[in-house]
Predict the structure.
Amino acid sequence: MSQLGSHGESQVEVVDTGSPWVISSSIVVKAPAEQVFEVLANPRRHPDFDGSGSVRGAVTGPERLSLGAKFGMDMRLFVPYRISSQVKEFDEGRRIAWAHIGGHRWRYELEPLPDGSTRVTETFDATTARSARALKLMDAYNRNARAIEETLPRLAALVEGETP
């Protein structure tokens, strides 16, 4: 792992995935995994921690995500649009991933640490994409690597700010 940015004492670290189609980084959040997961599983909270600047708001979907749940977002990437996603991976309190029509996934994995904090790993996974090469042409890998670097500290600050 190599260090990128920081949040308080926590460093964003790049995770070597061994794949050019998978980009991943992690951060330690000073809160229990269950608390972090509650934020991730609520689609209405996604604009609060999104570091890409593209997520504008939740427009449809349940209050809390579960496997197979569908939710829609107002987005902006060059132009405003709406997109629907579906939860493709779900392990309560430990892992959640969703994908839209493009097939690529955004995944969050939570690892509880002995001191009560949580290592959160965010991944942009194009191994499931309809066209990983098209994503390359759109510079999606670099753009998402930068977004993850911004998202993780925002998520940490949000959750830690809510920790009693």
